[in-house]
Amino acid sequence: MKKISGDEEKKGGTDWGKKSRYLLVILICVGILALIWPQGKSEIQQAALPETQTSSSVSQAKANIANELQSILSQVEGAGKVQVSISLSSDGLKSYARNTKDENRETQEMDHSGSDRNIKENNQSSDIAVSGGSALLVEDRAPEIVGVLVVADGAKNGAVKERLTAATTTLLNISPQQVRVEARRGE
């Protein structure tokens, strides 16, 4: 009996050893997947993030300029309450570094009859330079202001209207044709 029971214990021990090895392999695989999974997901989020940041940063910059201009123009004597709206030409211009490769090949062939043949090949290829997984930005131009509308309580007075126009053109470095100053309607 002891031999039989002893054999059964050994078999049970080897079964448990096999089960624990399989369990260990499964746990290692799950651990590796857990380490890899968040990294892949964060890269996708980071790739999508700059585009949304760009549009929001442009609208934020536009709002900041309008608020600052509104604050300054409301301090002009006789202006009263002022509201400002700014129109931009675009979201700005971004220039990225490029890797350019030019290949020029010239081949001369002569055949047995004495005729000569020249072959010229020109190949150009260009791609955006990347460093650390993102494109290398060379230049980032702010959007151009194409128009400004100023609505003020005191714009009924010609002198106040002229001062508001002059202040706006000076602050934003734009021409007077790009600025329109209007009187607020009476309520």
Can you offer a commentary on this structure?
With 187 residues, the chain is of the alpha+beta class. The chain has a domain at 94-140. Helices cover 47% and strands 32% of the residues. It has 2 helices and 9 strands. A 3-stranded mixed beta sheet has the order 1-8-9, with helices on one face. Mean pLDDT is 77; it is low at 1-5 and 39-52.
Give a quick precis of the structure.
This protein is α+β, with helices and mostly antiparallel strands.
Strand order of the largest sheet: 1-8-9
Beta-sheet strand percentage?
25-35%
* Helical content (DSSP H or I, runs of 4+): 40-55%
Content-based structural category: alpha+beta
Which sheet architecture does the biggest sheet show? 3 strands, mixed
Overall 3D shape:
flat
Mean pLDDT over the full residue set: 77
What is the number of beta strands?
9
The radius of gyration computed from the alpha-carbon positions, rounded to a whole number of angstroms, is 36 Å
Give the termini distance in whole angstroms.
108 Å
Number of helices: 2
Oligomer: single chain
Q: Please mark out the parts with pLDDT under 50 across 5 or more consecutive residues, or reply none.
A: 1-5, 39-52
Q: What's the helix-strand series? A: HEEEEEEEEHE
